[in-house]
Structure formats: C-alpha cells, structure tokens
Amino acid sequence: MPIFIQSDIEAHIALRDTDKSLEGTAKDLVYLQKDRSDESIETEIAIPDTYDNLTHNFKRIKEILIVLTNELAATREMNIH
Prior knowledge:
The protein is mostly helical. The protein has one domain (about 5-80). The chain contains 3 helices and no strands. The chain has helices at about 5-15, 20-40, 60-80. Helix 1 crosses helix 3 (about 60-80). It is flat, with a radius of gyration of 16 Å. It starts with a helix and ends with a helix.
C-alpha cells in the first residue's frame, strides 16, 4: 500500500477515534505527516501494470465500496457530534 494511502487511512481512524478536539488532532496529524515526509527519501513510481492485480470480481468491488462508504459515513457522523 503506498504511503499516502496508508497515512490517509490512519488519519481517518485517528480522527474518528479521538477524544481530543478535531482541530487539535488534525494539527497533530499534519505535524506527523510533515515529519514522515521529511524523513522519507524513497520515491515510488507506478508502472503500467500496477492495477493488473486488482480484483475484477464485481461482487468483491461492491463489498469494498460498501465498507469504504460506511467508514466515511461513520467518520462524518463522529465529526458532527
């Protein structure tokens, strides 16, 4: 999983599960991301066959999209409260 996707997922989970204010948590995550990007010297390049390993099973894709939608809805609901 590329680092930007992994860190986005981690950020969403952190925002969802925090007891602190969302603004404070968001600032902490920004500093963490900056530290990670400063430390990283690797660059990954996508090659043309990157997506060949993706599932072509439409039922599985639908399940993945439902889980993602539910997570986003839960995050939004937590942000409202």
